[in-house]
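Researcher: Here's a chain I'd like modeled. Treat it as a single chain, no partners, no ligands.
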Amino acid sequence: MALRLLLPLLALAATLLINQAQGISSSASDCCLKYSQRAIPSGLVKSYSIQEAASGCAIPAVVLITKKNKKICASPTNLAVQKLMKNLDKKVKSDTKDKKQGQRSRSRGRPKRQERQQV
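Model: Modeled as a single isolated chain. Structure tokens:
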């Protein structure tokens, strides 16, 4: 009789453990597991993000996003990757600065008057 009560409880516990384990593996599916060994042309990369080991991933990495929205995992200690990140930061900063200056020039002052042509 005790076995009949214990068996459903064991089945329930096993189901919960399996579901929990599946949830853990699916949350880490976007993590980089190894670094790309190939040289990455800077013209192909449009942005990047940083993966930290503290976020639940096994290794720290720089995730480079290409213009075709492909993800490339790179080592954060690689000097070429660090240079690429700096260049992307500069580009984003200058693009933002240009946009702000463009908005200011349009919104300030009166519009220029056009001279009339004499016939």
